[in-house]
Amino acid sequence: MSEPTPRFWQIFFEVFEALPRQGPGNRACAARALAFCRELPPAPAVLDLGCGVGGQTLHLAELTSGSIVALDSHAPSIERLRATVAARGLAERIRPVVGDMASPGLPSASFDLVWSEGALYNIGIENALRICHGLLRPGGYLAFTDAVWRKENPPPEVKASFELDYPAMARVSDILAVIERAGFALLGHFSLPDEAWWDDFYTPMQQHIEDLRSRYADDGKALAVLDQLAQEPAMHRRHSDHYAYEFFVVCRKG
After folding, report:
1. Which of 17, 27, 105, 151 makes the best surface tag, with the fewest CB within 10 Å?
2. Quick one: which H or E segment has residue 138?
3. Contacts of 147 (CB under 8 A, 6+ apart)
4. Beta bridge partners of 254
């Protein structure tokens, strides 16, 4: 399959950067995951890796009383988050940073909680957990979501979609084995409910795609990209029983 064109990425970011969040999740799931972190300090030092435009970062600011470093490699997303943080008067608590998850350049053992929703797979889960382990203080928490298979032999369109974006996608049992090897103790895990896919992600995505169809009515290449992006929520509606997003909450040993 050919590499995405610059035009594809232009339209892709035009769609995704306008959304409340760039992947499945919601405030209720964040609260449920945080509930596993029973010994979190009253004002924890939090790192949100792969924060995007910061939908979950803002939830963390509501659900905790600490400081948050929000890191993402896509500078326009960080600029949007900075504007949101300033507008909400959260500049003293949230520090958006342009950076690389694979080499975040942050002090070792300096965070009580590392958080990452749908982003760690970009650098490989095993490698990501090693990096997160080094960033956490002993006894610190890591909470992350990752796409997982629910069933064997998914339909061809589902298999092709995930092989394009996440060829190493595994099952929950495989992730649990990686967690153990990485020096973490499992505290809990759960599958995101269907509303976590739709309320703040696919529903606004579909609406924004339709808005852009009007804007690009005379641009065949843009419309083709929008058609391609629209396949994702359509596929989820048909085949969501074959895959899930799983929230894992773990604690650094020692």
Report:
1. 105
2. strand 136-149
3. 118, 121, 162, 166, 169, 243, 244, 245, 246
4. none
Six-digit token pair at 54? Answer: 């910061």
Give the predicted TM-score (pTM) of the model. Answer: 0.95
Q: Using alpha carbons only, give the angle 52, 55, 61 rounded to the nearest 5 degrees.
A: 115
- Using an 8 Å Cβ cutoff, are 115 and 72 in contact? no
Q: Cα 236 vs. chain centroid, distance in angstroms?
A: 17
How many beta carbons lie within 10 A of that of residue 250, not counting itself? 28
| CA 70 remoteness from chain centre | 12
Which runs of consecutive H residues, i.e. helices, occur in 102-202? 125-135, 156-165, 172-181, 195-197
Is residue 176 packed enough to be buried (19+ CB in 10 Å), middle (13-18) or exposed (0-12)?
Answer: middle
| pLDDT tens sequence across 180-199 | 999 999 999 999 999 999 99
Question: How many Å apart are CA 134 and CA 60, to the nearest integer?
Answer: 21
Q: Would residue 24 be called left, alpha or beta, if left means φ above 0 and alpha means ψ between -120 and 50 degrees?
A: beta
Distance CA 246, CA 171 (A): 10
Burial 22-53 (b: 16+ CB within 10 A, else e): bbbbbbebbebbbebbeebeeebbbbbbbbbb
